[in-house]
């Protein structure tokens, strides 16, 4: 087996070209062929090339690629659930996933609980007779809490639950949930895997057995990715390790510097010794602590002016790309939450979430410090 850097670059498939040829055909000859080739059958060469690479990066047996992260997440959940089932979710998960659960599950009589994943003991006490899935995300958005994945997988195994982890923030370069006993990894490829703010896709990696179940539902839900975008994903993956390693290093530098800055009240970054889950993070994020960090200005009144004064860093939604972006979760990703709920999650107006890109870390830091001072 090769290192992740090498795996990102090289395809295992034997083909003449260094890159997989773009295959866009939706009508394909069937006579004399065993398999019906069709994009929504998730079986084109472009789809297979990406899946093969992601499986090797995530150390899983099988995978699939989807047209968005939400298509991947919705397909995984609905392929295992039926009326009367119950699911445990951690509290701090992606807003779109929360919306899916709260708006769709009641229509199908699927019950759920949101629990603080920091407290694995309380998670176990909420497992019911009909609980089927335990679903978490680490590091979380936007406070970068770290969930102990070995503890989650232990609870899942004990109660025969399917464990699912959204590994979007960590990327397979930094963290491999399957090696920690997790059953299914999901990704919003729109973020780090794509990495250039120009692609929307999702992915899953799991065992052969679970993939077969997900695959049968995926054929019905139809969230496949087209050949042209697959080609761009394949190109993006070649630089994934390179990008993430740079983002890890820059985020660490920026987090450490911001922590010393008197204008800043708190920094949230799992790589800092002071982070409440640093020990767990160091144990399970073997590749690095990621490119996401959050911080709060000492003076909340200055937040908007600070964002306006940034010259280099772009106030924008989404994350994980080569350009550094920043957002104020209370006014963007979490704006629809009632204030009370938002504050209960620890998301105050003063909180800013930074997605560190691949620019020079010193330039980024200077941009932040200048905007804070003036
Ligand atoms: C963006 C995101 C998603 C949703 O992915 P889309 O590609 O936008 O559908 C899911 N999980 C996390 C952690 C995300 O950041």
UniProtKB/TrEMBL annotation:
InterPro entries: Cys/Met-Metab_PyrdxlP-dep_enz, Cys_met_metab_PP, PyrdxlP-dep_Trfase, PyrdxlP-dep_Trfase_major, PyrdxlP-dep_Trfase_small
Signal peptide residues on this chain, from the entry's feature table: none
Cofactor(s) this protein requires: pyridoxal 5'-phosphate
Name listed for the protein in its UniProt record: Trans-sulfuration enzyme family protein
Domain of life: Bacteria
Keywords associated with the record: Pyridoxal phosphate
Alphabetical list of SUPFAM superfamilies matching this protein: PLP-dependent transferases (SSF53383)
Family: Belongs to the trans-sulfuration enzymes family.
A UniProt-annotated Pfam family: Cys_Met_Meta_PP
């Amino acid at each position: 087996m090769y290192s992740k850097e090498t795996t990102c670059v090289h395809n295992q498939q034997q083909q003449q070209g260094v890159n997989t040829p773009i295959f866009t055909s939706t009508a394909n000859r069937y006579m004399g062929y065993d398999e019906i080739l069709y994009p929504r059958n998730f079986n084109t060469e472009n789809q297979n090339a990406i899946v093969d690479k992601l499986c090797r990066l995530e150390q899983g047996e099988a995978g699939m690629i989807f047209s968005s992260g939400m298509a991947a997440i919705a397909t995984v959940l609905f392929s295992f659930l039926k009326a009367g089932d119950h699911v445990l979710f951690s509290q701090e998960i992606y807003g779109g996933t929360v919306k899916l659960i709260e708006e769709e599950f009641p229509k199908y009589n699927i019950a759920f609980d949101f629990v603080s994943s920091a407290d694995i003991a309380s998670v176990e006490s909420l497992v019911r007779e009909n609980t089927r899935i335990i679903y978490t995300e680490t590091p979380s958005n936007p406070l970068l809490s770290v969930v102990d994945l070995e503890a989650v997988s232990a609870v899942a195994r004990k109660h025969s639950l399917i464990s699912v982890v959204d590994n979007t923030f960590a990327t397979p370069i930094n963290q491999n949930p399957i090696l920690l006993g997790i059953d299914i990894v999901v990704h919003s490829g729109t973020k780090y895997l794509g990495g250039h703010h120009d692609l929307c896709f999702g992915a899953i990696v799991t065992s052969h057995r679970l993939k077969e179940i997900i695959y049968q539902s995926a054929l019905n839900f139809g969230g496949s990715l087209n050949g042209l975008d697959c080609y761009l994903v394949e190109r993006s993956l070649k630089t994934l390790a390179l990008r993430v390693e740079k983002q890890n290093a820059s985020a660490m530098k920026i987090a450490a510097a911001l922590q010393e800055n008197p204008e800043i009240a708190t920094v949230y970054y799992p790589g800092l010794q002071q982070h409440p889950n640093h020990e767990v993070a160091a144990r399970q994020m073997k590749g690095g602590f990621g490119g996401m960090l959050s911080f709060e200005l000492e003076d909340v009144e200055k937040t908007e002016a600070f964002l306006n004064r940034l010259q280099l860093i772009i106030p924008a939604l989404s994350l994980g790309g080569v350009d550094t972006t920043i957002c104020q979760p209370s006014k963007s990703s979490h704006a629809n939450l009632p204030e009370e709920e938002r504050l209960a999650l620890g998301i105050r107006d003063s909180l800013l979430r930074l997605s560190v890109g691949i620019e020079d870390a010193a330039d980024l830091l200077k941009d932040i410090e200048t905007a804070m001072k003036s």
